[in-house]
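Field log, afternoon session.

UNIT: design team B
ACTIVITY: writing a sequence onto a fixed backbone
BACKBONE:
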């Protein structure tokens, strides 16, 4: 993060921290992938991350799409180093200090490219069911590939980040993330191929959202939003749901009785929560399929 001379709160007043920033900036080796972070470098990062000017700078830049997992990893940077020899292949197992935890693993950004298919088995009403989950990438460059999987879809799971209400799109910094999410939902929900397909809308990153909304008012996204509710998670969630419902109801009237829209508040990094969300999604999916086939 570059120091911003024009705003005093972004300045690094601490000499030690300033010296460390300079030394890191000069160390080109740390900007490559698969780099080994040594204890010395990790300690430098920790010292810099805890500096007031850097924290203020981060709060400012996070609106422009700093990855949501950044604080998670930087808050424990002093644990994320490998204490070993110069080359990767020379490191002995006992010298490897950092082994990713399950939580670390879940927080790694793993951008989907193309179309990735998974098979999930799930027990519903004492019977084993097999589901095919087709994962597509959310980035703009990926969306043109979606059309290839639009046929023969049992249910659409649309995941949006509640936490992004103060962020701008990664694809277009002039567009707010929420506006982009509403717009993409409109395009998918109004596609005639889905006129009788149920949608599950996952309002995700509820953990990060609930923390952020305490300090960052929702009026940053919509200045006309009720001022008395601007830091109220429930009020904001109601607003978000209402926006999606309005888009849903804008679709042709004759589609309404053929399909339904379900909301779930989710935290993808909470495994037990996701297991029960997916299980209840599967139950609804099967019941709805049976209803449509007039079995129930
Ligand atoms: N704290 C928290 N982090 C989350 C949650 N859901 C996803 N993340 C993190 O958000 C980042 C993005 O996750 P991805 O799985 O790459 O996101 P994606 O939506 O599939 O992105 P594309 O593949 O580009 O479409 C990762 O670092 C995840 O760990 C959540 O509910 N809470
Ligand atoms: Mg993905």
């Amino acid at each position: 993060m570059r120091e911003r001379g024009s705003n005093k709160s972004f300045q690094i007043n601490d000499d030690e921290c300033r010296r460390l920033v300079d030394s890191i900036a000069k160390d080109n080796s740390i900007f490559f992938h698969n780099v080994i972070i040594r204890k010395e470098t990790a300690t430098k990062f920790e010292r810099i991350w805890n500096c007031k000017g850097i924290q203020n700078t981060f709060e400012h830049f996070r609106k422009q799409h700093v990855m949501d997992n950044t604080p998670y990893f930087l808050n424990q940077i002093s644990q994320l180093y490998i204490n070993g020899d110069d080359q990767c292949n020379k490191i002995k197992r006992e010298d490897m200090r950092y082994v990713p935890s399950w939580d670390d693993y879940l927080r790694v950004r793993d951008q989907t490219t193309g179309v990735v298919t998974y098979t999930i088995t799930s027990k519903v009403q004492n019977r084993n069911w097999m589901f095919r989950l087709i994962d597509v990438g959310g980035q703009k460059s990926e969306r043109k590939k979606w059309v290839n999987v639009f046929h023969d879809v049992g249910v659409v799971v649309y995941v949006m980040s509640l936490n992004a209400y103060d962020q701008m799109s990664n694809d277009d910094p002039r567009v707010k993330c929420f506006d982009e999410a509403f717009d993409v939902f409109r395009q998918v929900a109004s596609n005639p191929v889905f006129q009788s397909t149920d949608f599950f809308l996952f309002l995700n990153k509820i953990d990060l959202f609930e923390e952020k909304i305490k300090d960052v008012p929702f009026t940053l996204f919509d200045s006309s939003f009720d001022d008395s509710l601007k830091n109220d998670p429930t009020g904001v969630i109601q607003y978000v749901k209402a926006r999606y419902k309005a888009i849903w109801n804008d679709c042709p009237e004759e589609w309404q009785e053929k399909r339904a829209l379900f909301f779930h508040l989710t935290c993808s990094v909470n495994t037990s929560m996701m297991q029960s969300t997916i299980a209840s999604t599967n139950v609804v999916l099967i019941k709805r399929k049976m209803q449509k086939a007039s079995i129930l």
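LOG NOTE: The first strand starts at residue 115 and ends at 124.
NEXT ACTIVITY: expression trials, pending approval
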